[in-house]
Write a structure and sequence with these properties.
- By secondary structure, the chain is of the alpha/beta class.
- The protein folds into three domains: 231 residues, Phosphoenolpyruvate-binding domains (TIM Barrel), CATH 3.20.20; 77 residues, PK beta-barrel domain-like (M1 Pyruvate Kinase, Domain 3, Beta Barrel); 117 residues, Pyruvate Kinase, Chain: A, domain 1 (3-Layer(aba) Sandwich), CATH 3.40.1380.
- Helix 1 runs parallel beside helix 12, helix 7 packs across helix 9 and helix 10 packs across helix 12.
- 44% of the residues are buried.
- The model has no long low-confidence stretch (mean pLDDT 93).
């Protein structure tokens, strides 16, 4: 099953998409990677979804990626005596550590680390920014605030502290249990939430020990102060615009999205644009024009993938949302002017043999009109380099490791095929030609550009380029 597009699609599974029929429908509609969100659902429910995905993988013969997204620390207020209160602008409102039910004058905020990080003048955003408080006085374990933007506030609503670096680990005790389950279940990527600093990613990497890739979610403005270091420590990145849009002025998010995509592309790390892409399709069979343009912008910018969240997890039109995203992507990718956008963002190369070979592969493919660029890879590094070039030709990735093929499911323009280990370069070229014909990439007489690292099985050694013609054997 070959996808006739370069940009990949992630879909989140949830109550609306837990049956075999529903998951199969999303896959057939165009999903390349499934996301399991540990903020919701039990391990047993997630295990059932994983079993269905792997069954679909075996039946289709196509590697399917699984992203398991840990919740991260969530800051929430306590409960109110009557379930909610109406806060009036200009009034005082106290946050403290007391466990007593709240009222119009105070509520519990059971996170002492917040009080340690804030100062007079700090703004606190509650309920996704609907309510804004400003600190006028603070002490040990409390903060007196003034209501800047009032509104109804109910039990257990979330709290955001813009620009403050909170002394909180990015993995909670719950996350560690979820992480252990995810690794035992064969996750391809771990979605790492609430990352504020490079040390958060490094700590997760020590726990994961290479058993899955780390997809760091960029959702906290504090992380942007260390963007390049965080990207460098990650295996993939998600531009999670939900929390960014709460803690930053909305007009800043589009520019930051472009910057994050650019930095990830420079580093050769897959980048996923997520959150509220086709949100109206939760309840509507078609998106707004603005939402369609939002998806298109991410494709024009060269993102590796775009993601659906509630649209497929709880939405009434889950399959239609994937089909719509597929159609938008294909429409953009058929735009004759789109290649100019990608050429305008052509990246500088490092002075290495691997980068030289990969750049040459793109140039040779364009010059001779090659049907595909074929990469033979063990760790995926050869293929990541090829995708970084954003070539016009599709990328056929051959690997002896199914885990590598699954991770490549999120990478721009890549069609990954698990194949038996190859001993010689001639064997690899012959196999590349056969698989290119089998999977519809090439016909007899057409040419392929083949890159690999020799000796085989040595990660990061892209050092050979070969121009091959597909023969009739």
């Amino acid at each position: 099953m070959r996808r006739l597009r370069q940009t990949k699609i992630l879909a989140t599974l949830g109550p609306a998409t837990s049956t075999r029929e529903a998951i199969a429908a999303l896959f057939e509609a165009g999903t390349d990677v499934f996301r399991l969100n540990f903020s919701h659902g039990t391990h047993a429910e997630h295990a059932g979804r994983i079993a269905v995905i792997r069954e679909l993988e075996r039946a289709s013969g196509r590697p399917i990626g699984i992203l398991m997204d840990v919740q991260g620390p969530k800051l929430r207020i306590g409960r109110f005596r009557d379930g909610s209160v109406e806060l009036k602008a200009g009034r005082r409102f106290r946050l403290d550590l007391a466990e007593a039910a709240g009222d119009e004058t105070r509520v519990s905020l059971p996170h002492p680390e917040v009080f340690a990080a804030i100062a007079k003048g700090t703004d606190l955003l509650l309920d996704d920014g609907k309510v804004r408080l400003r600190v006028v006085r603070k002490g040990k374990g409390f903060a007196e605030t003034e209501v800047v933007t009032g509104g109804r506030l109910s039990d257990a609503k979330g709290v955001n502290v813009p620009r403050a670096v909170l002394p909180i680990a990015s993995l909670t005790a719950k996350d560690r249990k979820d992480l252990a389950f995810a690794l035992e279940s064969g996750a391809d990527y771990i979605g790492l939430s609430f990352v504020q600093r490079p040390a958060d990613v490094a700590a997760a990497r020590r726990l994961i020990r290479g058993r899955a890739g780390i997809m760091t979610k960029l959702e906290k403005p504090q992380a942007l102060d260390h963007l390049r270091e965080i990207v460098g420590l990650s295996d993939a990145v998600m531009v999670a615009r939900g929390d960014l849009g709460v803690e930053l002025p909305p007009e800043e998010v589009p520019m930051l999205q472009k910057e994050m995509i650019r930095v990830c592309r420079e580093a050769g790390k897959p980048v996923v644009v997520a959150t509220q892409m086709l949100e109206s399709m939760i309840d509507s069979p078609s998106p707004t024009r603005a939402e369609a343009s939002d998806v298109a912008t991410a494709v024009y910018d060269g993102a590796d993938a775009v993601m659906l969240s509630a649209e497929t997890a709880v939405g009434r039109y889950a399959r239609a949302a994937v089909e719509m995203m597929d159609r938008i992507i294909k429409s953009v990718e058929h735009d004759p002017h789109r290649r100019r956008f990608l050429e305008a963002t052509r990246l500088e190369h490092e002075a290495t043999g691997a980068d030289a070979i990969t750049a040459a592969a793109r140039q040779v493919a364009e010059t001779v009109g090659a049907a595909a660029i074929v990469t033979y890879t063990s760790s995926g590094s050869t293929t990541y380099r090829a995708a970084r070039e954003r070539p016009a030709a599709p990328i056929l990735a051959l690997t002896q490791h199914l885990a590598t093929a699954r991770r490549l499911a999120v990478v721009w323009g890549v069609h990954a095929v698990p194949t038996a280990d190859i001993k010689t370069f001639a064997d690899m070229v012959n196999k590349a030609c056969r698989l290119a014909v089998r999977d519809g990439f090439a016909k007899v007489g057409e040419r392929l550009v083949v890159t690999a690292g020799v000796p085989f099985g040595t990660p990061g050694t892209t050092n050979v380029l070969r121009l091959a013609t597909v023969d009739a054997h």
